[in-house]
Amino acid sequence: MTSSTSLSLRFSPPPHTLLPSKPRRSLIVTAAQTAPPAVEADRLEPRVELRDGFFILKEKFRKGINPQEKVKIESEPMKLFMENGIEELAKKSMEEIDSQKLTKDDIDVRLKWLGLFHRRKHQYGKFMMRLKLPNGVTTSAQTRYLASVIRKYGEDGCADVTTRQNWQIRGVVLPDVPEILKGLASVGLTSLQSGMDNVRNSVGNPLAGIDPDEIVDTRPYNNLLSQFITANSRGNPDFSNLPRKWNVCVVGSHDLYEHPHINDLAYMPANKDGRFGFNLLVGGFFSAKRCEEAIPLNAWVPADDVVPLCKAVLEAFRDLGNRGNRQKIRMMYLIDELGIEGFRAEVEKRMPSGKLERESPGDLVNKKWVRRDYFGVHPQKQEGLSYIGLHVPVGRLQADDMDELARLADTYGSGELRLTVEQNIIIPNVDTSKTQALLQEPFLKNRFSPEPSILMKGLVACTGSQFCGQAIIETKINALKVTEEVERLVAVPKPVRMHWTGCPNTCGQVQVADIGFMGCLTRGENGKPVEGADVYVGGRIGSDSHIGEIYKKGVPITDLVPLVAEILVKEFGAVPRVREENED
After folding, report:
1. Which residue from 204, 219, 320, 354 has the fewest beta carbons nearer than 10 Å?
2. What's its catalytic activity (predicted)?
């Protein structure tokens, strides 16, 4: 186990984060300081205990637990990796695996601790593999390796850029997994602890270290967080038995590319008494039953305590979170139960010093900042270098696409690529003298444009029913088709972010989109069930973040184009193209 005394690390403050002469007023509304709910002392007893190196739910707290908790109790998922159980499992046939509940649960549930998701419904025997990619930074060597993995799976093999700045690869079969895990390690990648009740990929500024206007370089913090959470890719059972999944980000941009308000823990840069550190937001999440923006913890930590604070929050959630109905056990439910001050007290007592400073007024994020577009060519803070943002249509790539991206990163840049939460890719460190040559590359002339159309640049879509068993509709193909048809009907004066999600789990984050589409079944003209979407309008990201509201429910996919065109005209200043042509 990791000792708390080894977690504090020294960071030098960013050179331009001097304490403002007048503290900026945060536009995030702090909850009124009310007395915390009355909580019985025994409610604060930890519900888990350490046994044989792993945290397990105590017998006295097992009444009414959900099926996934029972699976964890029956067999520790991390043993598949830490005790090499995957080697034996990979030798079994699918028929043999399905004949026993233990091994069937291994492939359907426990392998998610290794980042492997069995596609039982649509691709029996095939798996999606989710990587860890702190801050979305990857290399050409890593990208080529992932391309080599998916290429062997033919039409089933592809990769997606996710809304957590990460890679997911598809088509993987179980017998190949041990070698794939070794291959990932050889290029500095891991898929460990990336699914189920674990900490998901740590998100940061995709322009970290190269942005002339950044507040702080988020890469060191996210690297440390990821290394801590996975024990340097060896597996960290201290935090592999959380009640539910848990998201974290470190903010380094005024643009809030990191989407802090939808994370369980967000580090917001702020100075205090001449020291650089972070104010903290907690509890943001999306689910099928509830969506909540993160709220202030009324706490600040110096930069050196980023990891100890993360540890304390995770321990509070692990120890005290409920393990019943999985729709009601994200961390915000624990905050609701204890009250924000009660939750804060539990975090504070788990800090190495037993103390947690109050929030600082010295917030460094400029609330009036206009979010920048990262597509195309932009100068870096390093003289003579530029970065180029490329559009990846709905985040989907094939093996050849990944190889070509790796080649471009090596030929024109430093062999590095950056992934964004909008499912796009940035090539950094390009010699400015080479940017025109890069722009002339055929790869950038087709699908992966540095100048996508105004509606395509804000288009996001989850996996959809092609590969995901929970999706009600196909998202990626429908998203592209509807957007292309809408663009033929109306001209839009400014970018409009449109997000698609295939089911109420809202992996596509439709509630923060300008226009969101949540998959559903509805009735067609003949009264028979057809694929449709509930349409949301009004979501926002940034310092004035806001969750969108239902505009119209149960719209058949075939009826979306005129409805979206109507919304764009009414709400976003679009002009019908027929009228535009007549005026010309």
Report:
1. 354
2. 6 oxidized [2Fe-2S]-[ferredoxin] + NH4(+) + 2 H2O = nitrite + 6 reduced [2Fe-2S]-[ferredoxin] + 8 H(+)
